Amino acid sequence: MVPPNPPLLLYHMSLSLLLLLFLLVSKQASSASNAISLNQSLSGKQKLVSEGSNFVLGFFQPGNSSYYYIGIWYNKISQLTPVWVANRDAPITEPTTAELKICSDGNLVLLDQSNSRVWSTDANITSNNTVAVLLDAGNFVLKDASNPNKTLWQSFDHQTDTWLPGGKLGVNKFTGQIQHLTSWKSLDDPSPGIYSLGIDPNGSSQYFTVWNNSVNYWSSGIWNGEIFTAVPEMMSHYLYSFQYVSSDTERYFTYTVQSSDIITRFVMGISGQIQQLTWVENSQEWILLWSQPKQQCQAFALCGPYGSCNENAYPFCTCIKGFREQSPADWALGDRTRGCVRKTKLQCGKNNSSRQKKDRFFTMSNMRFPDNMQTFQVGCASKCELACLNNCSCNAYSFSGRACSLWYGDLLNLQEMYTGPSGGTLFLRLSASEFRSPRKEKRVVIIEIACSIIGTSALLAIIYLLIWTRKRKGMMGIPESAEGGLIAFRYNDLRRMSNNFSEKLGEGGFGSVFKGVMQDSKVIAIKKLERYSQGEKQFRSEVSTIGIVQHSNLVRLHGFCSEGNNRLLVYEYMPNGSLNTQLFHNNPNNVLNWKRRYQIALGIARGLTYLHDHCRDCIIHCDVKPENVLLDASFAPKLADFGLAKLLGRDASRVLTTMRGTIGYLAPEWISGSAITAKADVYSYGMMLFEIISGRRNFEQTDDQKPRFFPTLAARKLVDGDVTGILDQRLEGDAKLEEVIRACKVAVWCIQDDENCRPTMGQVVQILEEVLEVNMPPIPQALQMFDENLGTVVFSELSLNRSSEVKETSSTSATGSLL
């Protein structure tokens, strides 16, 4: 027997002891990692992690700020995204000497480096035996340690700018405590901003977004038992459950998600919009599902005093003529509450020499008028101007008919390129020095005339030289082209052709569209791309791809413009506008007949088939909806915006991309964050096909203020054999019954929950052309969620069959075979 080696034995015993100590310490640390008890504290880089590791609580620095805050953020996503901030208006400079702890009265407190209290839960607690726990829902709760079921304080009752699933927005009638959201001041400053969202303090069920605690600029509408009346989009959020509660003790609204895999948040943004965002793991970014108000410029006083908002530009806010940003640093961080200040003070009221020039007025056309106007009747425009000029507090005036409107004090809520009812020409008061003097103007005019003569002569010489050169080369009359035959337009030329983009035709997912006229009287449609972040090389590459895509059911691209930050596309003009305007109007004398509707549905399907199957690369449109279907002079449909969709190479079956499109037409795989295929377009097509059949929006309110989800109604009537109840009532039954049935079946097949159960667009074309027979589809589970009656119906598996051949399938499965 070999005797033991004492040094080696001692080494192994020491190692075992160290391992045991390590395991004990690790176990103790992990068991306490989500809570702070009495005599414990959190400082420096220490953190609390919720039990399921969903959320983290600790010190953090927002953006480029030099200050630290105690906050809660997501633990499982790559971007630091705070959802709650404790000391949002009392930051600290040194977290290593600061402490978050339970104090002697049982409250949770934050002490700074000088041991001064900067934040506390301030709960009415009778026991000091408390514990603070970070829960997996993102809620930070202070509990009675001897009674864990007793919550003394929770962060969900003191939300900052973010509303998480399970949290409440409302009011406690017993305590008077209000749960509301308040925006951050800027991207780097979580202190309370100027925008907030809360329940109506007067007792109704509606919610308001509020500016500066004084102006309500958006309302959710009242709760009708299922949704808020001004938010019909809620009907399409079938992955979420909503609940409004009104009892003797409280009124509140809350929501939950159907799947724990969905990471979502509801935010009161610094730009005055409320936004619902969902994290897409594949693309590693937050995507916007929904926002209100829908137009950014509808957020009250977004650009501050003397700032002007423009929906067709990015950034949205600029200072009007004669003004500059009061704090450029704040503007860069999104905080424009201080707005703009005058470059030159007004001369009004100054007791200078008689040679002092008077203030003058600058003309601003197509402006939304500022708030707080004072209107009276005058005989002419000159008297209105004089009334403003004689009052040193008057900063602008407007005259229409005999009505003179004056504005005193700061000008708020200005908007350019505005065509709404409360707008027109505004005359802005500026110092005379902002304008050229007559003597200077005379000298400038003389110089400009001389320069013009010289320039014209030089230009004529150049033109003559170019013509002579082109004649020699035999190129006379052939226009210059670029990028595969597309015309490269200059920005100034497009601005001239569109009369400074004055006639707006509509808006798409990527920008606004304006009418233009070329020199040969050819009418064109000019799309200004908004927030297009790619460089010129990539833009030209994508444009060249669009240019080679030619099909009778796709809008043709004539050219483009790429100058500086300006990115524009020039398309053929479609005189009958969008399918959206043709379908959803109340003119009984101008209703699309069924024959045209059916041909439109077929034409759209052919266009999508070409994009999916017949291009060099599979092009997924990503935003199929009536607004993106344009109609030519003979009402032939043409898909627009297809060229800016995500390109999918032939060697790949899926594409990982940021979610885009429109709520109500989005396939479930978009919202769940899964990778998407061309079947996402199929789903959107099916939702649009329901609207083509019915002539009404899928989501709308009925006369009794109850929400109506048409696909559910259509599915039920299709099963019951009552397809005439699905058809647009304005058609008065004037349609081919077989075509209506076929179109309804196609629509339900297209919106199946499982993308593998949806047909391809090529199959849709064959069905509508009557090459393929189509049988009754199974009702998607998402539709059944909207109607309890559908939940009791058993649907056998049916299939699409070529001619009369029926492929046998199992009736116990709900997936279905398409061919």
Automatic annotation (TrEMBL):
GO terms for molecular function: ATP binding; protein serine kinase activity; protein serine/threonine kinase activity. It is an enzyme of class 2 (transferase). CDD domains: B_lectin, PAN_AP_plant, STKc_IRAK. The keyword Glycoprotein applies. It is found in: Membrane. Residues 33-155 form the Bulb-type lectin domain. Belongs to the protein kinase superfamily. Ser/Thr protein kinase family. This is Receptor-like serine/threonine-protein kinase.
